[in-house]
Amino acid sequence: MYLKIEGLYKNFETPTGTLTVLKDINMNIKKGEFICAVGASGSGKSTLLRQIAGLDSPTMGTVSIDGKLINGPGPDRGMVFQNYTLYPWMNVQKNTEFGLKLQGVSKAARREKASYYLNVVGLTKFAQSLPKELSGGMKQRVAIARSLASQPKVLLMDEPFGSLDVHTKETMHEFMLDLWERTKITVFLITHDVEEAVFLSNRVYALGSRPGTVRKEIDIKLPERSNEVKRHSVFHDYRDELMALLRQHGQEALVTV
Amino acid sequence: MNNQPIRSKDLAPTVFWRLAEDIPKPVNGALIVLSIAFPLFLWFLLSALGHIDPKFLPSPANVIEAFVRLWSSGDLLKDTLASLWRVGVGFILACLLSIPVGLMMGSFASIRALLEPFFGLIRYMPAPAFIPLLILYLGIGEEPKISLIFIGVFFFNCLMIMDTVKFVPKELIEATYMLGGNRLQTLLQVIYPHVLPGILDACRINLAAAWQLVIVSELIAATEGLGRRISVAGRFLKTDEIFVGLIVIGVIGLAFDLFFQYLVKISCRWANNKS
Asked: Which chain B residues touch A89 with a CB distance below 8 Å?
């Protein structure tokens, strides 16, 4: 098991009492898999990602990568946020190099590595541009290149395409699959977009809401991975199954508030 | 039915009253010139036609005469340099200390809790009220004046810089940790560059305060300086010299301000007009 989440619980103390956001999460992810966790709002998916990232620690349970327990953030887990979070005063090249700079890599080595990954994401021509000159999709690609430059074990993505328009989103989906096939990186992506999850992943975890739990784990086997696949009935079967799983618990949430 | 476009009567097209929008450059330029030219013109008119005692309102010609007089005697230059030197030393010292302290106060809740209450208290004590104490402790040389400027700038600057840090997006800091950064690297390589425009802006605002303070301190105890010049001129009812002093002070202050604005512009291009 490459990324292993065992018996994870997360509680938050609120003025009105203890809120259980995540309840008994167990996940086993193999190296090289593309995994999505789908959930409606309130399913705690961002919280879950933050536990894996080490930006927060669980109330109970463990997260381990490649056998080692996680107890803090680090470059072995690359993180891509919804809002790009590029450093606005650095150009694309420097942004991409920044992780390596923090880790003490020499100037020449990091320039080479960053250039390589900028090429992988197709932004070599924009190396000298400032983030404010880029479109949303391009900014996200820089963020991905920046994380990949540190050659992480897992790429964590927090609703990375949520701020993009439909067309850019589709392009980015194809880009993501292509990237994954080329780099063989393990990906853990959280989203509320069911179709995105079905299109991209090997396996999908359907998360329930309030508290967040793993309702079902679904293996995705699609005949092809291009946009054409959305015409196949099997795609829609998966989609419908997931929507039903999510809808069921969304309604529960409305009642129990 | 007439062919009038449907338009709210309150949003008729306008140039002058555009709300939160730019106006054409020529209009902007003309208004800027007017801002200085009109009061000058009024002044000229008033003193030429208003039958006002030149001791109350010297004419522009009187003021220019006084300027030439003070300049050629070397007094004006001596006074200006004295004031500038005091402001320079006091302000730079205050900035050198307040930038790191303010940054730390903004970044560490612990340091903030430790220093903010005390600094906040001192900030509300008017700097000029310290003058008698400073003279008592430090004499009547340059030290009390420079200390006065330091006190007037340091606490305000710290608190303003402290506030800029709260605008650093939390995700930017977390992204830095995820890239392998430790706290020190995050403070110096992420927080500091992000708040630099805010720091320069705080310095710009506090330089204006420093400039005022130096003049005030000279009004009370100095042997030379622009404030001293005004004070002496006032005692002898030389209103033309008072005007010279005020105008020189104002122009220098404005020059400082524009200089800082320029500094912010060239060092923080990324922060200017977001596309």
From this structure: 193-194, 268, 270-271
Same domain, A247 and A234: yes
**Matching residue, tokens 């310290």:** B130
Beta-strand (E) ranges in A220-257?
none
> Taking CB atoms and an 8 Å limit, are A53 and B178 in contact across chains?
yes
Identify the CA nearest to B229 among candidates B113, B119, B77: B77
Give chain A's domain count. Answer: 2
Look at A55 and B189 and tell me if their CB atoms are within 8 Å.
Answer: no
A81-122 pLDDT, tens digit each = 988 789 999 999 999 999 999 999 999 999 999 999 999 999
pTM: predicted TM-score of the whole model, two decimal places: 0.83
Its ipTM equals: 0.89
- Report, in angstroms and rounded to the nearest whole number, the Rg of chain B calculated over CA atoms: 24
**Within a 13 Å sphere around the CA of A247, how many CA atoms are in the beta-carbon half?**
7
CATH of the domain at A241: 3.40.50.300
**What angle is formed at CA B14 by the lines to CA B10 and CA B15, rounded to 5 degrees?**
150
Q: Residue holding tokens 């305000």?
A: B156
Across the interface, whether the CB atoms of B178 and A130 are under 8 A apart is answered no
According to CATH, the superfamily of the domain at B77-271 is MetI-like (1.10.3720.10)
Range of the domain at A203: 1-71+155-257
Domain residue spans of chain B: 77-271
